[in-house]
Amino acid sequence: MTGRLAVVGLGPGNPLQTTPEAAAAVAAASDVFGYGPYLERLARHPGQTHHASDNREELDRASRALAMAASGRSVAVVSGGDAGVFAMAAAVCEAIEHGPAEWRAIETTVVPGVTAMLAVAARAGAPLGHDFCAISLSDNLKPWSLVEARLRAAASAGFVIALYNPVSRARPWQLGRSFEIVRAVLPEATPVIFGRAVGRPDERIAVTALRDADTADADMATCVIVGSAETRLVSRPALSPLVYSPRSSGRGAA
Amino acid sequence: MTGRLAVVGLGPGNPLQTTPEAAAAVAAASDVFGYGPYLERLARHPGQTHHASDNREELDRASRALAMAASGRSVAVVSGGDAGVFAMAAAVCEAIEHGPAEWRAIETTVVPGVTAMLAVAARAGAPLGHDFCAISLSDNLKPWSLVEARLRAAASAGFVIALYNPVSRARPWQLGRSFEIVRAVLPEATPVIFGRAVGRPDERIAVTALRDADTADADMATCVIVGSAETRLVSRPALSPLVYSPRSSGRGAA
Predict the structure, then answer these.
(1) ipTM value of the model?
(2) Which among A12, A15, A55, A14 is positioned nearest to A33, based on CA atoms?
(3) Which of A7, B66, B87, B239 is the most buried (most CB within 10 A)?
(4) A chain contacts of residue B158, beta-carbon cutoff 8 Å
(5) For residue A93, is pLDDT > 70?
(6) Distance, CA of B75 to CA of B6 (rounded, Å)
Protein backbone atom coordinates (compact mmCIF):
# COMPACT_ATOMS: atom_id res chain seq x y z
CA MET A 1 0.00 0.00 0.00
CA THR A 2 1.52 3.29 -1.10
CA GLY A 3 0.48 6.78 -0.10
CA ARG A 4 1.67 10.05 -1.47
CA LEU A 5 4.13 12.78 -0.65
CA ALA A 6 3.91 16.51 -1.41
CA VAL A 7 6.88 18.79 -0.81
CA VAL A 8 5.35 22.21 -0.33
CA GLY A 9 6.81 25.73 -0.44
CA LEU A 10 4.87 27.99 1.91
CA GLY A 11 6.35 31.29 0.68
CA PRO A 12 8.34 33.81 2.71
CA GLY A 13 6.03 33.98 5.72
CA ASN A 14 3.05 36.20 4.96
CA PRO A 15 0.03 33.90 4.40
CA LEU A 16 -1.06 36.18 1.54
CA GLN A 17 2.09 35.03 -0.26
CA THR A 18 1.22 31.33 0.07
CA THR A 19 -0.31 30.01 -3.15
CA PRO A 20 -3.75 28.36 -3.06
CA GLU A 21 -2.06 25.23 -4.44
CA ALA A 22 0.31 25.10 -1.47
CA ALA A 23 -2.45 25.72 1.06
CA ALA A 24 -4.55 22.94 -0.50
CA ALA A 25 -1.64 20.49 -0.49
CA VAL A 26 -1.10 21.06 3.23
CA ALA A 27 -4.82 20.82 3.99
CA ALA A 28 -5.09 17.49 2.17
CA ALA A 29 -2.30 15.81 4.16
CA SER A 30 -2.80 13.37 7.01
CA ASP A 31 0.72 14.12 8.25
CA VAL A 32 2.79 17.28 7.94
CA PHE A 33 6.56 17.28 8.46
CA GLY A 34 8.70 20.38 8.83
CA TYR A 35 10.97 22.62 10.81
CA GLY A 36 9.10 23.67 13.95
CA PRO A 37 8.67 27.40 13.19
CA TYR A 38 7.21 26.63 9.74
CA LEU A 39 4.67 24.23 11.24
CA GLU A 40 3.67 26.88 13.77
CA ARG A 41 2.51 29.09 10.91
CA LEU A 42 -0.02 26.46 9.83
CA ALA A 43 -3.50 25.70 11.08
CA ARG A 44 -3.78 22.07 12.15
CA HIS A 45 -6.60 20.47 10.23
CA PRO A 46 -8.89 17.94 11.98
CA GLY A 47 -7.27 14.53 12.19
CA GLN A 48 -3.96 15.88 10.93
CA THR A 49 -0.68 15.16 12.71
CA HIS A 50 2.21 17.62 12.74
CA HIS A 51 5.76 16.24 13.02
CA ALA A 52 8.18 19.02 13.97
CA SER A 53 11.92 18.60 13.72
CA ASP A 54 15.07 20.68 13.94
CA ASN A 55 16.47 22.75 11.10
CA ARG A 56 19.56 20.60 10.63
CA GLU A 57 17.81 17.26 10.21
CA GLU A 58 16.64 17.56 6.62
CA LEU A 59 17.66 14.14 5.32
CA ASP A 60 16.30 12.37 8.38
CA ARG A 61 13.03 14.32 8.10
CA ALA A 62 12.76 13.39 4.41
CA SER A 63 13.31 9.70 5.19
CA ARG A 64 10.72 9.62 7.93
CA ALA A 65 8.20 11.36 5.67
CA LEU A 66 8.87 8.88 2.84
CA ALA A 67 8.54 5.90 5.17
CA MET A 68 5.20 7.22 6.33
CA ALA A 69 4.02 7.80 2.74
CA ALA A 70 5.13 4.26 1.84
CA SER A 71 2.87 2.98 4.62
CA GLY A 72 -0.14 4.52 2.87
CA ARG A 73 -0.43 7.94 4.48
CA SER A 74 -0.87 11.23 2.65
CA VAL A 75 2.17 13.23 3.71
CA ALA A 76 3.22 16.85 3.23
CA VAL A 77 6.73 18.15 3.89
CA VAL A 78 6.82 21.93 4.21
CA SER A 79 9.58 24.46 3.53
CA GLY A 80 9.61 28.21 3.86
CA GLY A 81 9.88 30.02 0.53
CA ASP A 82 10.16 27.63 -2.40
CA ALA A 83 10.59 23.94 -1.60
CA GLY A 84 13.18 23.54 -4.34
CA VAL A 85 15.60 26.36 -3.40
CA PHE A 86 18.03 25.29 -0.66
CA ALA A 87 15.13 23.43 0.92
CA MET A 88 13.39 20.09 1.37
CA ALA A 89 12.75 18.99 -2.24
CA ALA A 90 16.43 18.13 -2.80
CA ALA A 91 16.58 16.26 0.51
CA VAL A 92 13.52 14.21 -0.47
CA CYS A 93 15.02 13.36 -3.88
CA GLU A 94 18.29 12.37 -2.22
CA ALA A 95 16.46 10.13 0.24
CA ILE A 96 14.56 8.47 -2.61
CA GLU A 97 17.77 7.85 -4.56
CA HIS A 98 19.49 6.18 -1.63
CA GLY A 99 16.46 4.62 0.08
CA PRO A 100 14.51 1.37 -0.39
CA ALA A 101 13.25 0.64 -3.92
CA GLU A 102 9.62 0.99 -2.83
CA TRP A 103 10.14 4.74 -2.26
CA ARG A 104 10.52 5.16 -6.02
CA ALA A 105 6.89 4.10 -6.39
CA ILE A 106 5.55 6.85 -4.13
CA GLU A 107 3.65 9.52 -5.99
CA THR A 108 5.79 12.56 -5.15
CA THR A 109 4.90 16.12 -6.09
CA VAL A 110 6.70 19.39 -5.46
CA VAL A 111 4.57 22.52 -4.99
CA PRO A 112 6.56 25.67 -5.77
CA GLY A 113 6.41 28.90 -3.78
CA VAL A 114 7.74 32.45 -3.66
CA THR A 115 11.37 32.08 -2.64
CA ALA A 116 12.98 34.63 -0.30
CA MET A 117 15.05 36.51 -2.87
CA LEU A 118 11.93 37.31 -4.90
CA ALA A 119 10.12 38.74 -1.88
CA VAL A 120 13.17 40.76 -0.81
CA ALA A 121 13.71 42.03 -4.35
CA ALA A 122 10.07 43.12 -4.58
CA ARG A 123 10.43 45.25 -1.46
CA ALA A 124 13.43 47.06 -2.94
CA GLY A 125 12.28 47.51 -6.55
CA ALA A 126 13.73 45.17 -9.16
CA PRO A 127 17.31 44.24 -8.25
CA LEU A 128 16.84 40.84 -9.95
CA GLY A 129 15.65 42.50 -13.15
CA HIS A 130 18.61 41.15 -15.09
CA ASP A 131 20.78 37.99 -15.00
CA PHE A 132 21.29 36.83 -11.41
CA CYS A 133 22.34 33.89 -9.27
CA ALA A 134 21.59 32.38 -5.88
CA ILE A 135 24.35 31.09 -3.64
CA SER A 136 24.01 29.47 -0.23
CA LEU A 137 26.78 30.61 2.12
CA SER A 138 26.42 27.51 4.25
CA ASP A 139 29.61 25.47 4.11
CA ASN A 140 28.13 22.60 6.09
CA LEU A 141 27.77 20.57 2.89
CA LYS A 142 30.33 22.10 0.55
CA PRO A 143 33.88 23.41 0.95
CA TRP A 144 34.21 27.13 1.57
CA SER A 145 36.68 27.41 -1.31
CA LEU A 146 33.85 26.51 -3.67
CA VAL A 147 31.69 29.33 -2.30
CA GLU A 148 34.54 31.80 -2.81
CA ALA A 149 35.10 30.63 -6.39
CA ARG A 150 31.40 31.01 -7.18
CA LEU A 151 31.23 34.49 -5.66
CA ARG A 152 34.21 35.61 -7.76
CA ALA A 153 32.83 34.04 -10.93
CA ALA A 154 29.37 35.52 -10.46
CA ALA A 155 30.50 39.05 -9.60
CA SER A 156 33.07 39.07 -12.43
CA ALA A 157 30.53 37.90 -14.99
CA GLY A 158 28.01 40.60 -14.03
CA PHE A 159 25.42 38.53 -12.19
CA VAL A 160 23.39 40.07 -9.38
CA ILE A 161 23.96 37.75 -6.41
CA ALA A 162 21.37 36.59 -3.88
CA LEU A 163 22.95 35.14 -0.75
CA TYR A 164 20.95 32.54 1.18
CA ASN A 165 21.90 31.32 4.67
CA PRO A 166 24.26 34.29 5.07
CA VAL A 167 25.04 33.76 8.73
CA SER A 168 24.36 31.49 11.69
CA ARG A 169 25.81 30.98 15.14
CA ALA A 170 28.15 28.32 13.74
CA ARG A 171 29.06 30.40 10.66
CA PRO A 172 29.76 33.94 11.87
CA TRP A 173 32.46 35.11 9.42
CA GLN A 174 31.38 33.84 6.01
CA LEU A 175 29.23 36.83 5.06
CA GLY A 176 31.99 39.33 5.87
CA ARG A 177 34.45 37.33 3.83
CA SER A 178 31.92 37.26 0.96
CA PHE A 179 31.68 41.05 1.02
CA GLU A 180 35.50 41.24 0.85
CA ILE A 181 35.53 39.01 -2.22
CA VAL A 182 32.93 40.95 -4.16
CA ARG A 183 34.45 44.31 -3.11
CA ALA A 184 37.56 43.26 -5.03
CA VAL A 185 35.46 43.09 -8.21
CA LEU A 186 32.51 45.48 -7.91
CA PRO A 187 32.28 49.28 -7.51
CA GLU A 188 32.07 50.34 -3.88
CA ALA A 189 28.74 52.09 -4.53
CA THR A 190 27.08 48.84 -5.69
CA PRO A 191 23.71 48.57 -3.89
CA VAL A 192 23.32 45.82 -1.28
CA ILE A 193 19.95 44.87 0.16
CA PHE A 194 19.41 43.12 3.48
CA GLY A 195 15.92 41.63 3.62
CA ARG A 196 14.92 40.09 6.92
CA ALA A 197 11.67 38.20 7.62
CA VAL A 198 9.95 39.77 4.63
CA GLY A 199 6.17 39.88 4.91
CA ARG A 200 6.25 39.06 8.61
CA PRO A 201 5.59 41.50 11.46
CA ASP A 202 9.31 41.77 12.24
CA GLU A 203 10.30 42.53 8.65
CA ARG A 204 13.34 44.75 8.17
CA ILE A 205 14.69 45.97 4.82
CA ALA A 206 17.96 47.88 4.62
CA VAL A 207 19.62 49.23 1.48
CA THR A 208 23.24 50.27 1.62
CA ALA A 209 26.33 50.58 -0.56
CA LEU A 210 28.76 47.69 -0.80
CA ARG A 211 31.47 49.81 0.86
CA ASP A 212 29.25 50.16 3.94
CA ALA A 213 27.66 46.69 3.99
CA ASP A 214 27.74 45.48 7.59
CA THR A 215 27.30 41.83 8.49
CA ALA A 216 25.53 42.92 11.68
CA ASP A 217 22.50 43.67 9.48
CA ALA A 218 22.08 39.95 8.68
CA ASP A 219 20.87 37.00 10.72
CA MET A 220 19.51 33.52 9.94
CA ALA A 221 16.23 34.97 8.63
CA THR A 222 17.94 37.34 6.18
CA CYS A 223 18.45 37.10 2.43
CA VAL A 224 21.13 39.46 1.12
CA ILE A 225 21.12 40.73 -2.48
CA VAL A 226 24.34 42.20 -3.90
CA GLY A 227 23.85 44.19 -7.09
CA SER A 228 25.93 43.98 -10.24
CA ALA A 229 28.05 46.87 -11.50
CA GLU A 230 24.99 48.01 -13.44
CA THR A 231 22.44 47.93 -10.60
CA ARG A 232 21.04 51.40 -9.95
CA LEU A 233 19.59 53.26 -7.00
CA VAL A 234 16.80 55.77 -7.65
CA SER A 235 16.29 58.19 -4.79
CA ARG A 236 12.81 59.44 -4.03
CA PRO A 237 12.23 62.50 -1.82
CA ALA A 238 9.34 61.14 0.23
CA LEU A 239 9.71 57.41 -0.30
CA SER A 240 12.40 54.77 0.15
CA PRO A 241 14.83 54.46 -2.76
CA LEU A 242 14.23 52.01 -5.60
CA VAL A 243 16.99 49.55 -6.48
CA TYR A 244 16.86 47.97 -9.90
CA SER A 245 19.02 46.16 -12.45
CA PRO A 246 18.33 47.54 -15.93
CA ARG A 247 16.97 45.25 -18.62
CA SER A 248 19.71 46.43 -20.95
CA SER A 249 23.34 45.62 -20.32
CA GLY A 250 26.67 45.93 -22.04
CA ARG A 251 29.21 47.45 -19.72
CA GLY A 252 29.62 44.17 -17.84
CA ALA A 253 32.89 42.39 -17.24
CA ALA A 254 32.54 40.13 -20.28
CA MET B 1 -3.24 64.28 -7.11
CA THR B 2 -1.26 61.07 -7.03
CA GLY B 3 -2.56 57.54 -7.32
CA ARG B 4 -0.72 54.32 -6.87
CA LEU B 5 0.97 51.65 -8.92
CA ALA B 6 1.34 47.93 -8.19
CA VAL B 7 3.57 45.74 -10.34
CA VAL B 8 2.14 42.25 -9.95
CA GLY B 9 3.53 38.80 -10.67
CA LEU B 10 0.69 36.43 -11.61
CA GLY B 11 2.70 33.22 -11.42
CA PRO B 12 3.34 30.75 -14.24
CA GLY B 13 -0.23 30.47 -15.49
CA ASN B 14 -2.22 28.16 -13.25
CA PRO B 15 -4.53 30.37 -11.11
CA LEU B 16 -3.80 28.08 -8.13
CA GLN B 17 -0.20 29.34 -8.35
CA THR B 18 -1.24 33.01 -8.10
CA THR B 19 -0.80 34.29 -4.55
CA PRO B 20 -3.79 35.85 -2.74
CA GLU B 21 -1.71 39.04 -2.48
CA ALA B 22 -1.36 39.24 -6.26
CA ALA B 23 -5.04 38.50 -6.87
CA ALA B 24 -6.04 41.21 -4.39
CA ALA B 25 -3.68 43.76 -5.97
CA VAL B 26 -5.24 43.17 -9.38
CA ALA B 27 -8.78 43.28 -7.99
CA ALA B 28 -8.12 46.62 -6.29
CA ALA B 29 -6.95 48.36 -9.46
CA SER B 30 -9.00 50.74 -11.54
CA ASP B 31 -6.71 50.11 -14.52
CA VAL B 32 -4.70 47.03 -15.42
CA PHE B 33 -1.83 47.14 -17.92
CA GLY B 34 -0.14 44.11 -19.42
CA TYR B 35 0.75 41.92 -22.35
CA GLY B 36 -2.49 40.79 -23.96
CA PRO B 37 -2.32 37.06 -23.13
CA TYR B 38 -1.68 37.82 -19.44
CA LEU B 39 -4.70 40.12 -19.27
CA GLU B 40 -6.84 37.41 -20.87
CA ARG B 41 -6.16 35.19 -17.86
CA LEU B 42 -7.78 37.74 -15.54
CA ALA B 43 -11.40 38.37 -14.67
CA ARG B 44 -12.34 41.98 -15.39
CA HIS B 45 -13.71 43.51 -12.22
CA PRO B 46 -16.67 45.93 -12.40
CA GLY B 47 -15.53 49.38 -13.45
CA GLN B 48 -12.03 48.16 -14.21
CA THR B 49 -10.29 48.97 -17.50
CA HIS B 50 -7.79 46.61 -19.11
CA HIS B 51 -5.02 48.10 -21.28
CA ALA B 52 -3.43 45.39 -23.44
CA SER B 53 -0.17 45.95 -25.26
CA ASP B 54 2.40 43.98 -27.19
CA ASN B 55 5.21 41.97 -25.62
CA ARG B 56 7.97 44.24 -26.90
CA GLU B 57 6.62 47.53 -25.54
CA GLU B 58 7.63 47.23 -21.90
CA LEU B 59 9.06 50.69 -21.32
CA ASP B 60 6.19 52.37 -23.14
CA ARG B 61 3.69 50.33 -21.12
CA ALA B 62 5.44 51.29 -17.89
CA SER B 63 5.37 54.96 -18.80
CA ARG B 64 1.68 54.95 -19.67
CA ALA B 65 0.88 53.15 -16.42
CA LEU B 66 2.91 55.67 -14.39
CA ALA B 67 1.26 58.62 -16.14
CA MET B 68 -2.14 57.18 -15.29
CA ALA B 69 -1.14 56.60 -11.66
CA ALA B 70 0.17 60.17 -11.48
CA SER B 71 -3.29 61.36 -12.55
CA GLY B 72 -4.79 59.73 -9.46
CA ARG B 73 -5.81 56.29 -10.67
CA SER B 74 -5.07 53.01 -8.94
CA VAL B 75 -3.04 51.10 -11.49
CA ALA B 76 -1.77 47.51 -11.70
CA VAL B 77 0.83 46.33 -14.20
CA VAL B 78 0.88 42.55 -14.54
CA SER B 79 3.62 40.12 -15.52
CA GLY B 80 3.60 36.36 -15.85
CA GLY B 81 5.70 34.60 -13.22
CA ASP B 82 7.46 37.03 -10.91
CA ALA B 83 7.26 40.73 -11.77
CA GLY B 84 10.92 41.24 -10.88
CA VAL B 85 12.52 38.51 -13.02
CA PHE B 86 13.02 39.62 -16.63
CA ALA B 87 9.67 41.36 -16.34
CA MET B 88 7.85 44.63 -15.73
CA ALA B 89 9.26 45.76 -12.37
CA ALA B 90 12.61 46.74 -13.90
CA ALA B 91 10.87 48.58 -16.73
CA VAL B 92 8.78 50.55 -14.22
CA CYS B 93 11.88 51.47 -12.17
CA GLU B 94 13.67 52.55 -15.35
CA ALA B 95 10.72 54.70 -16.38
CA ILE B 96 10.64 56.32 -12.94
CA GLU B 97 14.36 57.08 -13.05
CA HIS B 98 14.14 58.76 -16.43
CA GLY B 99 10.63 60.20 -16.19
CA PRO B 100 9.16 63.39 -14.70
CA ALA B 101 10.00 64.12 -11.04
CA GLU B 102 6.38 63.64 -9.98
CA TRP B 103 6.62 59.92 -10.78
CA ARG B 104 9.02 59.54 -7.82
CA ALA B 105 6.14 60.49 -5.54
CA ILE B 106 3.88 57.65 -6.73
CA GLU B 107 3.40 54.94 -4.15
CA THR B 108 4.82 51.98 -6.06
CA THR B 109 4.72 48.39 -4.82
CA VAL B 110 5.98 45.18 -6.36
CA VAL B 111 4.04 41.98 -5.62
CA PRO B 112 6.22 38.90 -6.09
CA GLY B 113 5.12 35.65 -7.70
CA VAL B 114 6.28 32.14 -8.56
CA THR B 115 8.75 32.62 -11.39
CA ALA B 116 8.90 30.11 -14.27
CA MET B 117 12.10 28.32 -13.26
CA LEU B 118 10.62 27.43 -9.85
CA ALA B 119 7.51 25.92 -11.42
CA VAL B 120 9.53 23.99 -14.00
CA ALA B 121 11.97 22.78 -11.35
CA ALA B 122 9.09 21.57 -9.17
CA ARG B 123 7.75 19.42 -12.01
CA ALA B 124 11.13 17.72 -12.43
CA GLY B 125 12.16 17.26 -8.78
CA ALA B 126 14.72 19.69 -7.36
CA PRO B 127 17.20 20.72 -10.07
CA LEU B 128 17.62 24.13 -8.36
CA GLY B 129 18.42 22.47 -5.05
CA HIS B 130 21.91 23.93 -5.03
CA ASP B 131 23.58 27.14 -6.27
CA PHE B 132 22.01 28.29 -9.53
CA CYS B 133 21.61 31.25 -11.87
CA ALA B 134 19.08 32.68 -14.28
CA ILE B 135 20.12 34.06 -17.66
CA SER B 136 17.93 35.63 -20.32
CA LEU B 137 18.99 34.54 -23.80
CA SER B 138 17.43 37.62 -25.36
CA ASP B 139 20.10 39.76 -26.98
CA ASN B 140 17.68 42.57 -27.78
CA LEU B 141 19.06 44.62 -24.91
CA LYS B 142 22.54 43.20 -24.36
CA PRO B 143 25.35 42.00 -26.64
CA TRP B 144 25.37 38.28 -27.38
CA SER B 145 29.05 38.10 -26.32
CA LEU B 146 27.94 38.94 -22.79
CA VAL B 147 25.48 36.04 -22.78
CA GLU B 148 28.22 33.66 -23.93
CA ALA B 149 30.60 34.90 -21.23
CA ARG B 150 27.96 34.40 -18.54
CA LEU B 151 27.09 30.90 -19.76
CA ARG B 152 30.77 29.89 -19.64
CA ALA B 153 31.30 31.46 -16.22
CA ALA B 154 28.20 29.85 -14.74
CA ALA B 155 28.80 26.35 -16.11
CA SER B 156 32.48 26.45 -15.14
CA ALA B 157 31.71 27.57 -11.59
CA GLY B 158 29.19 24.76 -11.05
CA PHE B 159 25.94 26.73 -11.15
CA VAL B 160 22.75 25.10 -12.40
CA ILE B 161 21.52 27.42 -15.19
CA ALA B 162 17.94 28.46 -15.87
CA LEU B 163 17.50 29.93 -19.36
CA TYR B 164 14.69 32.45 -19.84
CA ASN B 165 13.53 33.65 -23.28
CA PRO B 166 15.38 30.76 -24.93
CA VAL B 167 14.02 31.29 -28.41
CA SER B 168 11.76 33.51 -30.49
CA ARG B 169 11.07 34.02 -34.16
CA ALA B 170 13.70 36.78 -34.26
CA ARG B 171 16.21 34.76 -32.19
CA PRO B 172 16.25 31.22 -33.62
CA TRP B 173 19.90 30.15 -33.05
CA GLN B 174 20.80 31.44 -29.59
CA LEU B 175 19.65 28.38 -27.66
CA GLY B 176 21.59 25.97 -29.88
CA ARG B 177 24.70 28.08 -29.48
CA SER B 178 24.14 28.08 -25.69
CA PHE B 179 24.03 24.29 -25.65
CA GLU B 180 27.33 24.23 -27.60
CA ILE B 181 28.95 26.49 -25.03
CA VAL B 182 27.92 24.49 -21.99
CA ARG B 183 28.73 21.18 -23.75
CA ALA B 184 32.35 22.34 -23.82
CA VAL B 185 32.30 22.49 -20.01
CA LEU B 186 29.75 19.99 -18.68
CA PRO B 187 29.49 16.18 -18.92
CA GLU B 188 27.36 15.07 -21.86
CA ALA B 189 24.99 13.22 -19.52
CA THR B 190 24.11 16.42 -17.60
CA PRO B 191 20.30 16.57 -17.27
CA VAL B 192 18.47 19.27 -19.21
CA ILE B 193 14.81 20.10 -18.57
CA PHE B 194 12.50 21.79 -21.04
CA GLY B 195 9.43 23.16 -19.23
CA ARG B 196 6.76 24.64 -21.43
CA ALA B 197 3.58 26.42 -20.22
CA VAL B 198 3.85 24.83 -16.78
CA GLY B 199 0.53 24.59 -14.96
CA ARG B 200 -1.46 25.38 -18.08
CA PRO B 201 -3.49 22.88 -20.13
CA ASP B 202 -0.80 22.72 -22.83
CA GLU B 203 2.03 22.04 -20.36
CA ARG B 204 4.90 19.93 -21.66
CA ILE B 205 7.90 18.79 -19.61
CA ALA B 206 10.81 16.98 -21.22
CA VAL B 207 13.96 15.70 -19.54
CA THR B 208 16.96 14.78 -21.64
CA ALA B 209 20.74 14.60 -21.51
CA LEU B 210 22.82 17.58 -22.60
CA ARG B 211 24.25 15.52 -25.48
CA ASP B 212 20.70 15.08 -26.86
CA ALA B 213 19.23 18.49 -26.00
CA ASP B 214 17.28 19.68 -29.05
CA THR B 215 16.31 23.30 -29.52
CA ALA B 216 13.12 22.13 -31.24
CA ASP B 217 11.81 21.29 -27.76
CA ALA B 218 11.76 25.00 -26.82
CA ASP B 219 9.54 27.89 -27.83
CA MET B 220 8.73 31.32 -26.39
CA ALA B 221 6.75 29.81 -23.52
CA THR B 222 9.59 27.50 -22.43
CA CYS B 223 12.06 27.79 -19.57
CA VAL B 224 15.10 25.53 -19.95
CA ILE B 225 17.10 24.29 -16.96
CA VAL B 226 20.62 22.95 -17.55
CA GLY B 227 22.01 20.98 -14.61
CA SER B 228 25.48 21.28 -13.11
CA ALA B 229 28.03 18.48 -13.25
CA GLU B 230 26.57 17.26 -9.96
CA THR B 231 22.88 17.23 -10.94
CA ARG B 232 21.47 13.72 -10.75
CA LEU B 233 18.71 11.77 -12.44
CA VAL B 234 16.81 9.18 -10.39
CA SER B 235 14.90 6.71 -12.54
CA ARG B 236 11.60 5.33 -11.27
CA PRO B 237 10.01 2.24 -12.84
CA ALA B 238 6.42 3.49 -12.97
CA LEU B 239 6.92 7.24 -12.70
CA SER B 240 8.84 9.95 -14.52
CA PRO B 241 12.45 10.36 -13.39
CA LEU B 242 13.42 12.83 -10.68
CA VAL B 243 16.12 15.39 -11.43
CA TYR B 244 17.84 17.00 -8.48
CA SER B 245 20.97 18.90 -7.51
CA PRO B 246 22.35 17.53 -4.23
CA ARG B 247 22.60 19.81 -1.22
CA SER B 248 26.21 18.73 -0.78
CA SER B 249 28.89 19.64 -3.29
CA GLY B 250 32.61 19.46 -3.67
CA ARG B 251 33.52 18.06 -7.03
CA GLY B 252 32.72 21.37 -8.75
CA ALA B 253 35.09 23.23 -11.03
CA ALA B 254 36.37 25.49 -8.26
Answers:
(1) 0.97
(2) A55
(3) A7
(4) 146, 150
(5) yes
(6) 6
